[in-house]
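does this look right to u?? glutathione version
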Amino acid sequence: MTDPSTFPITKKWPARHPERLQLYSLPTPNGVKASIMLEETGLPYEVHLVSFEKNDQMSPEFLSLNPNNKIPAILDPQGPGGQPLALWESGAILIYLADKAGQLLPRDPARRYETIQWLMFQMGGVGPMFGQVGFFVKFAGKDFEDKRPRDRYVNEARRLLAVLDGRLAGRDWIMGDEYTIADIATFPWVRNLVGYYGAGDLVEFEAFANVKRVLEAFLARPAVGRGLTIPKRD
Ligand SMILES: N[C@@H](CCC(=O)N[C@@H](CS)C(=O)NCC(=O)O)C(=O)O
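got this back:
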């Protein structure tokens, strides 16, 4: 194991347990994917708060690990070959942690790729589009008189929910009876859309009974309950 203190990010966020995986995050829909995954797998980790109020994500120490100034990011002192591995982009982090723990990503090759396909559906569709709905419904964009940009993203969010709802028909989880990283990526965003963003009526959420059912099952998981509040905000 290489001492993680050789990484500049640890100057701003020192590791109290340098042998553990270090998580740099905030409990946002992207951030909680990593904390939920770590809670689900039981991998030992240490979490550090990246405060947006303090613009921590723009600090040279954070940028030294993730030049894209976004959470979540991790530093695993015991990465592949026993060497430290720094990683960002929540989808990549989920795949890495699933492989490391040997959990939540099917081993059968065809099912593995199918899980990654739904993970990418979240990364390329659900996350960016729901995020835009948030901008136009909850944040600065809500005051724009012209509602066409809002409607564009609301319609796209509704379309994505319909795709997800169709997939979940007759299934417990996105991959059937197996709970996977595809669920961990997707449901924090569904929760945020109808909860924090308050866009449930706009996207006609009640019409998506399968999504609603699986969201409830997801939120009932103890590891999800814990992960949603990690790290604690100041
Ligand atoms: N595609 C990235 C998106 C990450 C992302 O957008 N993170 C937001 C919080 S949810 C962030 O760090 N924003 C800070 C900023 O843009 O300065 C991922 O999935 O990891």
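The chain is about 50% helix and 10% strand. idk if thats expected tbh
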